[in-house]
Write a structure and sequence with these properties.
The complex is a heterodimer of chains A (503) and B (98). Chain A is an alpha+beta fold. Helix content of chain A is 39%, strand content 18%. Chain A contains 17 helices and 15 strands. In chain A, a hairpin with a 4-residue loop joins strand 13 and strand 14. Chain A is elongated. Chain B has 98 residues and is mainly alpha-helical. Chain B contains 3 helices and 3 strands. The longest helix of chain B has 24 residues. Chain B is flat and about 55 Å long. The mean pLDDT of chain B is 87. The chains are: A alpha+beta (503), B mainly alpha (98). At the A-B interface, strand 2, helix 2, strand 8 and strand 9 of A face strand 1, helix 3 and strand 3 of B. Chain A: One of its GO terms (molecular function) is glutaminyl-tRNA synthase (glutamine-hydrolyzing) activity.
Chain lengths: 503, 98
């Protein structure tokens, strides 16, 4: 990385003077049991080079055999993105030399993608919907994984080299390419983020991938260009590679807009190139200059016959598509009776599934939302984790709410029970028992505390007896304090009034 | 009609990482010319209504079941590697890490 500071234009200023256009390529690793062209397993985290065959390694004479399920998953994705499915398509060799591609070519699709001409609606955080047009979705294979050795790892200078693990080589990928996304102006970074998030949700709903960003199951390349006005022709674009979190997608677009604006302001031209995203510093740096398509010398893969999905098969797959995430959210919002803003907060917090499971376990929708968006959201924020990562299950939350509903704990005690559950003390029931947090509604125990409170405040007793019920709260407060908040407040009130009248 | 120049052969050789001598460049430019001209003749006959052929057998949809099979033992996988370390292939430094 250059030590020179890259000049940047303030983002708001940049979008006031330039119209950003973005385009996104998303790669998703399919959740098949085996690779695209051979029967090697695809499990995550295996020891290096333990999931390889002669095909994965591109050994001489090895021949590919296409995974039918990967084709089915690609069609599922295409259909969910409202694409046409090609009646006949082929694989092609994309030739380049790089150690993570052991065959010296990647088996991909070129001019005949399996799916094309689609769209997907993307909802931004404030509810605005942007329709993103899909140019194509094609099948290909993943590359191996390189680890750089030397330099910062403290090895002697000149001993720098890379180590390659081919477990990932040949894992089925679908690459989804958008048409240029125009007309979104200053919201381009948000749209980019929401688009990738929408696809991730879609992959999960379709059950075609685990779609775990942190494992690199979903990776995005982000194209950005600027033009003077929305009427001007598209400007020169850069492609920032391997941006692998939602937040980074947004930041990378913002950064490129600011950087390109500075280049243009300076009277220079944006260089068409691939750029690298640096997660730690939040900047992009120049990579190689984008080569012509001819340089890859694409040609049809002679070792694989064409894929010709019959219309019957396509319709069969279409009939098994699940409810799409956006439609599902709308349905759930109706069922749960949440207001638009409430539902958006729930979606943005990643709490839809959690709340759904909590309701399924018996909690009322309002109560489920109160817990996940209140106490639990705070706990997640304190621990800097996602809601789903908290050590509590939806059924435990439903159990906690059942304790409240039955009057065995009040709201204050319930929060203490939850704290116990989050601290790993067991289920809500176990925490109640272990910590002795149950509401005391047993008259014997309560009467002693009530009598004590009345005796301590004779002036209050006099007022109540005179018909002024306002100060009853002071007595109840004293009783609650004496019982460490475990008294049933309603019962205490009744007892106080009985005692005062009886006296 | 010469269509393939010596420079083009040199560029392609570079892309394909094939080290050609000066003599080979001259010879291949001529030979490739003949091939390109022959293919051009085929293209004249193949009109728009003739679908492109990528495979001589009239087959489509040859699929494999998604069932795991045998993998290579690591030692075998690495047997052909000029150098290996920690079960991985050691290669010259790659500048653009992913």
């Amino acid at each position: 990385m250059s030590t020179m500071t890259t000049p940047l234009v303030d983002y708001d200023e940049a979008v006031a003077r330039f119209d950003p256009v973005i385009g996104i390529e998303v790669h998703v690793e399919l959740g098949t049991a085996t690779k695209m062209f051979d029967a090697a397993p695809t499990g995550f985290g295996a020891d290096p080079n333990t999931q390889v065959t002669p095909v994965s390694l591109g050994l001489p004479g090895a021949l590919p055999a296409l995974n039918g399920r990967a084709v089915e998953y690609a069609i599922r994705i295409g259909l969910a993105l409202n694409c046409e499915i090609a009646p006949l398509c082929r694989f092609a060799r994309k030739n380049y030399f790089y150690p993570d591609v052991p065959k010296n070519f990647q088996t991909s699709q070129y001019d005949e993608p399996i799916a094309f001409d689609g769209w997907v609606d993307v909802e931004l955080e404030d509810g605005e919907v942007v329709r993103v047009e899909i140019e194509r979705a094609h099948m290909e294979e993943d590359a191996g994984k390189n680890t750089h050795v030397g330099g910062s790892t403290g090895r002697i200078h000149g001993a720098e080299y890379s180590l390659v693990d081919y477990n990932r080589a040949g894992i089925p990928l679908v690459e989804i390419v958008t048409r240029p996304i125009t007309g979104v102006g200053a919201r381009a970074p948000e749209v980019a983020r929401a688009y990738v998030q929408t696809l991730r949700d879609l992959f999960r709903a379709l059950d075609v991938s685990e779609a775990r960003m942190e494992r690199g199951n979903v990776r995005a390349d982000v194209n950005v260009s600027l033009r003077a006005t929305p009427d001007a022709p598209l400007g020169t674009r850069t492609e920032t590679k391997n941006v692998n979190s939602f937040r980074s997608v947004e930041r990378a677009v913002r950064y490129e807009v600011s950087r390109q604006a500075a280049v243009l302001d300076d009277g220079r031209s944006v260089v068409q190139e691939t750029r690298h995203w640096h997660e730690d510093t939040g900047v992009t740096t120049a990579g190689r200059v984008k080569s012509d398509a001819e340089d890859y010398r694409y040609f049809p893969e002679p070792d694989l016959v064409p894929v010709a999905p019959s219309r019957e098969w396509v319709e069969e797959i279409r009939a098994t598509l699940p409810e799409m995430p956006a439609a599902r959210r709308r349905r759930l919002q109706g069922e749960w009776g949440y207001a638009d803003a409430e539902m958006r907060d729930v979606v943005n917090a990643g709490a839809v599934e959690l709340i759904e499971a909590t309701i399924a376990a018996g909690a009322a929708p309002a109560a489920a939302r109160k817990w996940w968006m209140g106490e639990l959201a705070r706990a997640a924020k304190d621990r800097a984790v996602e809601l789903a990562e908290l050590p509590v299950t939806p059924s435990q939350i439903a159990g906690l709410q059942a304790l409240v509903d039955s009057g065995r704990v009040n709201d204050k005690l319930a929060r203490q029970v939850l704290a116990g559950v989050l601290a790993g003390e067991g289920t809500p029931e176990e925490v109640v028992t272990a910590r002795g947090l149950e509401v005391v509604s047993d008259d014997g125990a309560l009467l002693a505390a009530v009598d004590e409170a009345l005796a301590a405040q004779p002036d209050v007793v006099a007022k109540i007896r005179g018909g002024n019920l306002g100060p009853v709260g002071a007595i109840i407060g004293a009783v609650m304090k004496a019982t460490r908040g475990q008294a049933d407040a309603g019962r205490v009130r009744e007892l106080v009034l009985e005692r005062v009248q009886d006296a | 009609m010469s269509t393939i120049s010596r420079e083009e052969v040199a560029r392609l050789a570079g892309l394909a990482r094939i080290d050609l001598t000066e003599t080979e460049l001259d010879r291949l430019a001529g030979e490739l010319d003949v091939i390109v001209d022959s293919v051009a003749k085929v293209s004249e006959i193949a009109t728009a209504d003739v679908p492109a052929t990528s495979h001589p057998l009239p087959l489509t949809n040859v699929f494999r079941e998604d069932v795991t099979g045998e993998v290579l033992p690591v030692a075998d996988a690495l047997a052909g590697a000029p150098a290996a370390e920690d079960g991985r292939f050691a290669v010259p430094q790659i500048l653009e890490e992913d």
